[in-house]
Amino acid sequence: MTEFRNFIAGSWSEGASQSPNINPSDTRDVIGTAARASRAEAEAAVEAAHAAAPLWAASTPQQRFDVLDRIGTEILERREELGRLLSREEGKILAEGSGEVMRAGQIFKFFAGEALRQTGDVLASVRPGVTVDVRREPVGVVALITPWNFPIAIPAWKIAPALAYGNTVVLKPAELVPGSAHALAEIISRSGLPAGAFNLVGGKGSDIGPVLTSHPKVKAVSFTGSVPTGRGIARACAENLKKVQLEMGGKNPMVVLDDADLDIAVAASLNGAFFSTGQRCTASSRLIVTEGIHDRFVARMTEALKKLVVGDALDPATQIGPVVDERQLAQDLDYVDIARGEGGKVAFGGERLNREKPGFYMAPALITETTPGMRINREEVFGPVASVIRVKDYDEALAVANDCEFGLSSGICTTSLKYASDFKAKAQAGMVMVNLPTAGVDYHVPFGGTKGSSFGPREQGRYAAEFYTTVKTAYTQP
Ligand code: UN1
Known about the structure:
Largest sheet: 7 strands, mixed
CATH class of the largest domain: Alpha Beta
Helix content: 25-40%
Number of domains: 2
Number of strands: 25
Radius of gyration: 23 Å
CATH architecture of the largest domain: 3-Layer(aba) Sandwich
Distance between the termini: 65 Å
Bound molecules: 2-aminohexanedioic acid
Shape: globular
């Protein structure tokens, strides 16, 4: 049995207890056992990161480049194997699994370069003869709490900038996907990073999360996950005056206008709503469609959904893998019922599917005849469920798109430059997509949202420096 262990101060450990890592495509397949850290182990990880902090903060840009570049190289070389492990434990299909691993490798390569490209300012003071320089310094120990839906890319896009800017790390990955985090930790352990600069602790968030968010030696917490957990983390960080960065939910709109290219609109909506089994905070869960194209759009979507192959994530013929676990599947099915109860019509799917192997399979659901006030259009489902809202024109589409407590990614399909430009300006979202799915983002540009979706500085690209550094202003009189 493979053991996915904790990594603390440069040593591997079994944890206080273990939990099984189950394949959602075949629940008989136990991939391994995952270490659950005790609170004392989580504390030891923070202490190790704290002890290593001065050494890593003093590392040269070349040392940081070398470490991150080595990590990126090994991830890229092993992308098929790591992608398979990721798909086996999370349930996204093989192409998505290896694609995600590739993204993780590219992120490490990008931040390897950023370690060399760090900048500062040198200015004249307002006082004669005095100069001022403004430089970025590491924050110190950062705690990274990551979700199950991107088991390697999200840890990568937090760890890589943390290390590139000279911080040390304690990673707490989601319990459902310990294998990918363990593989990443092994790669990091061989990279030349000093012992203690990177630590991995597995287990329940409710158990060890509070250790990380309250420990005085943790200076910053970056979290991706649910809104209630995010709020709790923000409260704890406020109490202890830590920097905090939160990426939470979405209820992302995809607007389809009468003048849209229907092929593009259907492809972008299918991808955005249902790929990765809809388990992305960037998923297009509200399809807002103007009346002139509505019926043709729904007919084409339904036709396309009928052809999608739902099955074992490790079967190359599969297009939609299983839902991650029983609890999430129950929630997805529940929301289909809620939508039906509110007057929505299930145009396709929405039921549990039985396959040869016992797993959490669900037919992707398209719900039509919905209105903006319904719960199905206000609450995040986090599964393969999308609803269609019929609107009169662009103005109504924009208003409905923005009538939401979230603001992560907003899409529009149109051939009109006028509407596309207006939407880019007025969409209340951190990311806007024109004729592209709301999900599936680049790795070298900022990622994040507005309103209830995100809190704190942006992730990714060079904007990541904002969170992972602190600014020092130095005055010199020679
Ligand atoms: C993507 O759409 O490519 O948890 C990334 C999530 C996001 C990542 C989405 N933080 O779904």
